[in-house]
Amino acid sequence: MIKVVLLFIYLFIITPAQTNGNTITLPVEKKYRHNQVKIQKRAATHNIQLYNNEGFEYLVNIGIGTPAQNFTVSLDTGSSDLWVPSISCSEQECPYNRFDPSKSSTFSILNDTPPFYIAYGIGSVNGTFAKDNVELGDATISQQMFGMASSTQDLIFMSSSPSNGILGLGYPALTTGSVKYDPFLFRLQKEGHIEKPVFSISMGSVHNQGWAGEILLGGTNPEKYLGDIAYEPVWGNNTYWMVGGKSIQIIKETTQSEVIFNHTFASFVRCFIIDTGTSLTYMDHALADDIVRVMAGNVVLDQVSGTYIIDCGVKGDATTDYFLEFVMQKTKISVPIKDLILPLPGEEGRQGSLCMFGIAPWMTTGTSQTMSEKGWILIGDSVLRSTYLVFDMKDDQIGFAKVNTYDLFKSP
Ligand SMILES: *[C@@H]1O[C@H](CO)[C@@H](O)[C@H](O)[C@H]1NC(C)=O
Ligand SMILES: *[C@@H]1O[C@H](CO)[C@@H](O)[C@H](O)[C@H]1NC(C)=O
Ligand SMILES: *[C@@H]1O[C@H](CO)[C@@H](O)[C@H](O)[C@H]1NC(C)=O
Ligand SMILES: *[C@@H]1O[C@H](CO)[C@@H](O)[C@H](O)[C@H]1NC(C)=O
């Protein structure tokens, strides 16, 4: 078996929409259809399991076509298109399931089959758009626009549980068609298939491998969080799922808690992009350096991977806990430092062995550079695992709550 030594994923869509100030269509008011007889239209909640692939990506199973052809795809709040490999992609490039339109009775090809091309933080894909029925758990949308990939780069890896396509959960404004369209989840909401206009994500601990997480369509799951859900408004005209950040802190907790690092953003609020499709958390180089040095001493960046490689045994003992906190307007995400120390795939993660730090500087490729210059911070799985997430598609806000760790350690 081929083992990828540094497998990490970086899926936020790179789009010119960020720079040209285009107008954005807001989701229209939804009509519930409680009284209608058509069973499949009844508003409900749909609970779908999430697969934790070594902590580096989170996958769901979706079906496309009639009968459904199955794909295990990455769950990505940092982009908005759904695509899967099609039979026009070579087996070398697309070694897993490939969508065959001739085997679906509900498939429809679009007029002049508009091509699509998507560039992510790492990797790109191209192919053509089409429409067919899409199902996620027991939620189904007919004639959903999706991409059939004919070529992909750096997105499908040889792995025992490969990701074979991407399900973008972002706003319609980030879709890449020549005409913006409603992604699967936004259609579920607009067409009244879900009880509340939200979807909620609980990833589970990094150590709970396999089908340990959950995405709930249409509601929140009280078993997965503690206390109240605090909501932050979405920033930036409904493009990325992003919120306004105020500061980043490190807290040392013994018998009392002490702020040992406090980086308050100067004149303006920084955007925190909430991106389940990216493994690590990215910010400007100086800030990332400061944080890793507080936690692990004088670490240098590994130039090949663009990450900090540190001793797995660094910081934290029985009597002291450290937390990295992302402070927003009303609430904060608090991550135990030990959860930011990620064993390299195949490593034990013990003291003396090598781990990757969950915070990294923005990559220096062109488009990441743009994000970096804006001062934005991309919050990925390394941090998001520590919070329950609620994405509200109607009131344009993101809810955060403390994860229920008791539930995480319950045997499945
Ligand atoms: C696709 O997945 C569904 C639901 O998990 C399952 O019932 C069906 O048998 C699968 N189909 C194939 C062809 O694997
Ligand atoms: C799409 O993929 C094909 C095959 O690899 C390639 O020749 C073409 O340049 C790609 N198109 C874009 C826009 O990247
Ligand atoms: C949102 O749109 C307004 C009006 O077009 C623009 O002035 C503002 O800069 C946009 N905000 C962001 C974060 O793009
Ligand atoms: C962090 O620094 C800012 C600005 O210097 C200050 O206003 C704030 O009170 C500090 N927060 C803590 C918890 O020390």
From TrEMBL:
For this chain's UniProt record, which GO biological process terms are given?
A: proteolysis
Source species, domain of life? Eukaryota
Name all Peptidase A1 domain ranges. 58-401
Residues in the signal sequence: 1-21
Residues of the active site are 76, 275
Assigned keywords, A-Z: Aspartyl protease, Disulfide bond, Hydrolase, Protease, Signal, Zymogen
Q: Name one Pfam family in it.
A: Asp
Q: What are the disulfide bonds?
A: 89-94
Molecular functions per Gene Ontology:
aspartic-type endopeptidase activity
The similarity annotation says: Belongs to the peptidase A1 family.
Designated name of the protein: Peptidase A1 domain-containing protein
Q: What is the lineage of its organism?
A: Eukaryota, Fungi, Fungi incertae sedis, Mucoromycota, Mucoromycotina
